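Explain this one:

_____
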Amino acid sequence: MKVLLVDDYRTTTDLLADVACSMGHAVTRAYSGAEALAATGGEGAFELILLDIGLPDINGHELCMRLRASEKYASRRIFSITAHDDLHERFDMSCFDGQLTKPLSLGDFESLLSGKKEAERRDHR
């Protein structure tokens, strides 16, 4: 699966990329909103995007809204990554398919990459 990881904290991004690559996924890293927009503008489309909300240039919510406005990413899986638990009070998070909370559980991340997290979400609706 083609995965885009977007987080300005390089250690987090690089660790998640290593885990995803070890599971056989093709990973692109972006450390800012601008880098993410450049990556998503290329050929093909990412099947899964993880966006940090607290990016230095464009917040992850705004970035998600921009991606959702494009036909290419309107229905792709996009998850937020954040250390804040009050995002629903600050943003309409309905543009995201879900949220991973920092500190990130590698088990949750691996489940998301394998599709198990999606199945759990569908079962509990």
